[in-house]
Specification:
Blueprint lengths: L2 H18 L5 H4 L1 H7 L4 H4 L1 H21 L4 H21 L3 H29 L5 H28 L4 H20 L10 H5 L1 H8 L2 H30 L5 H29 L1 H19 L5 H16 L2 H11 L5 H29 L5 H16 L15
Helix pairs in contact: 1-6, 1-7, 1-8, 1-9, 5-7, 5-17, 6-7, 6-9, 7-17, 8-9, 8-13, 8-16, 12-13, 12-17, 12-18, 13-14, 13-15, 13-16, 14-15, 14-16, 14-18
């Protein structure tokens, strides 16, 4: 594949990532609003995070199968349609459980995109450039999350939260049709020969290194999800910020995430994906420890941005390690297993964290997250991230 053609493929996938992430954090940022508008307690409100995550979990494995067999543009088109249609439905609902249903349908767009998009990138990019490429890819995702949260803060201060779902659904749907008509992503990625060896190579997906990696990342995800889900609730209830201000502070995190994603990609290229992930996870633990004791809003915001940097810098090394540890012929399945295990944790953590908070107070989300991040970092240590010549990809 020629350089310019590869770049066009790459940036079309990255722009799709931006649109997929626009609504990623709006649901958790809106939890204080949902509690007030639908008269919920914190445990009930947590279902807006757990139920959609469980639906996303069930979508991962079939998507991995499709990602190895169907043209990229068709699956990405389905992702955009699911996101846009569910956003319009959410904007019109007055029932909490219909809201949960709408968010659940929206979350289907995530595995449809991520497994397909990341598999595609891992196939078209040379092995030595994967870490940097994943950095750019994740930066576009962080940018999407950032503009989603910033626009949410603006709509909360003016027309109301429902308008963010109406506003972004239009360009998302338009981009979906651009993808559908694009010849750039119409690639047959699994030949008959590759299909024939799929079962023979399947045990390579579940190597001991990859399994340990999945456990470590699952523990990390418990800590990260606990903090992310209830950060705006903490700012509103404990720090007495307005809902719009809390969303604005929370929305600054993905902007820092853009820098973190790029930094994680470049660091992984310089020192290796495994060492870059170690540094990022340690940075999360250290900054979260300081955040737990920060009272002044300016200091709290600064430390939160530092935490956002490190928590977003993990994605490039993690995606690179998945590509390093798994066979190229089963890359779609490998990413689906990775996202399935991660999604399993994401689907149950908010409810567990809400139960812990219910027994004490919302501040305890910090030690809860720190403990799991630390255990995850320790568990990760036996994992190595080889760069084997056989893992290199050519189309």
């Amino acid at each position: 594949m020629r350089g310019r053609e590869m770049e066009r493929h790459f940036w079309m996938v990255c722009i799709t990532h931006m649109f997929v992430e626009v609504y990623f954090l709006t649901q958790v940022a809106l939890i204080p609003v949902f509690i007030r508008e639908f008269q919920l307690n914190l445990f009930e409100a947590s279902f807006v995070a757990t139920v959609p995550s469980f639906v996303q979990l069930l979508t991962n494995i079939p998507t991995g199968y499709l990602a190895d067999r169907i043209d990229t543009n068709h699956i990405l088109f389905m992702s955009m349609v699911a996101e846009a249609a569910s956003a319009l439905a959410i904007s019109q609902t007055n029932n909490f459980w219909m809201l949960v249903l709408g968010v659940s349908v929206m979350r289907v767009s995530s595995p449809l995109y991520h497994i397909t998009g990341l598999s595609h990138i891992s196939r078209i990019v040379k092995q030595e450039k994967i870490s940097r490429s994943m950095g750019f890819h994740n930066a576009l995702g962080s940018f999407g999350s950032a503009i989603g949260l910033i626009s949410l803060a603006l709509f909360l201060s003016t027309t109301g939260w429902r308008w963010i779902y109406i506003f972004w659904s239009v360009p998302i749907l338009i981009w979906g049709f651009v993808l559908l008509r694009s010849s750039q992503l119409k690639i047959s990625r699994t030949s008959k020969e590759e299909k024939g060896v799929t079962l023979k190579r399947l045990p390579l997906v579940f190597s001991s290194g990859f399994l340990i990696f999945l456990v470590a990342i699952g523990l990390r995800e418990v800590g990260n999800t606990g903090t992310a889900t209830f950060m705006t609730t903490y700012l509103v209830e404990m720090r007495e910020l307005s809902e719009a201000t809390a969303s604005l502070v929370f929305g600054l995190g993905p902007f820092m995430g853009i820098v973190g994603s790029l930094g994680g990609g470049y660091l992984g290229e310089k020192v290796g994906a495994k060492k870059a992930l170690d540094i990022a996870m340690f940075g999360c633990i250290a900054s979260l420890s300081v955040l737990a004791t920060s009272a002044q809003i300016h200091l709290l915001t600064f430390v939160y941005l530092l935490y956002a940097y490190f928590s977003n810098s993990v994605w490039s090394p993690m995606n690179t390690i998945v590509a390093d540890l798994t066979p190229v012929t089963e890359r779609g399945l490998s990413f689906s297993v990775y996202f399935f295990s991660e999604g399993l944790i994401v689907s149950i953590t908010p409810t567990i964290a809400a139960a812990v908070i219910g027994l004490s107070d919302i501040w305890h989300i910090f030690p809860f997250s720190i403990i799991f991040l630390t255990i995850g970092l320790v568990t990760l240590q036996p994992v190595s991230s080889p760069k084997e010549p056989t893992a290199q990809v050519r189309d």
